[in-house]
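Reply to dn_fold:

You asked what the input looked like. This is it:
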Amino acid sequence: MISVADAREHQEVLLSDLKALVEIESPSSDKSSVDHLAEFLASRLEYHGGHAQIHIAEGFGNHVQADFPGVSESKPILLLGHIDTVWELGTLKQMPFRVADGRAWGPGVLDMKGGIAVAIHAMALLREHKVPHAAVRMLFVSDEEVGSHSSRAITERLALESQAVLVLEPGQGLNGAVKTERKGVGVYEIRVTGEAAHAGVEPGKGASAIHELAYQVGVLDGFTDPHRGLTVNAGLIRGGTRSNVIAAEAWTEVDVRIRTAADGRAIDSKVRGLRPRNDRCRIEVTGGINRPPMERTDKVVALYRKAAEVGRSLGLKIDELPTGGGSDGNFTAALGVPTLDGLGVVGEGAHAVNESILIDQLAPRTALLAGLIAAL
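and this is what came back:
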């Protein structure tokens, strides 16, 4: 068993690797940037990985897969993460990587380059201490923050070949709870077409798309059910051309969050079933549920209990919590593959200017991940 003390011996090198990862900016929208990080990551995996086989898969940005041999005939364990961030090129000038106040700071350090560094060094420790384990596959995708459109098929294929999926997203809160439940996500565009007219001269000849859409937004808000963890939010709205013109067009982009697949089917039917109050207007609905929920199934709970048991052997208390955000773990859990999320670093400020991780939690998280791999 890898101890926390063993992991601390890797902390300085881990921080050095993390600094390099953060300082290669990798916004989802810039293919050359994420591809550059993919190449660097492949080189670090080769350096630390021993006999690992490294593959680069082309996509919206390139994805990195590393296969580590195991000592048993059991299915491999899939470690899942992403190399893209929400931060645009040039963010480092305002948010440079730095170590201060017991934390490491920088764009993407928490979400989720810290988790990548932890995974690399967990595998390095297992190899260094000759700890037997099942085969391990790492998959680091380049488009998670924008919907995983080019990587989802790869993720799902590898998950179906695996005994379990360990997701390297950050832990929940400053206690680093793992995530056993994530909401599913849907995005819809609702477009209303009306009839234009002069607002002062012939208002009766017009049919306002804006007025119709305002009514429909109220209908959408009525679909929210906090007790079920179901939320519907019209977060972006546009329409019209001038204040003295009855608007002929208006649209809204709607975010939907669901806790269960059944709620996803029900809300999808409701959104697609919207009908205009003004029969001179037309409604067009596009989009849908693009990330299924990660439900707290018996398989997920069993994997959490295994992680908690490993944690206790290391002197760590590992709690579990749900979260409203989605990850690629949603895809794997929806396939029925045991999935545990939030096994990355501990910190706060994801997608915010205070993004940072707790340095004293790096070794415990590395030891936890290594121990869980060895225990499966």
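The chain has a mean pLDDT of 96.
Hope that clears it up.
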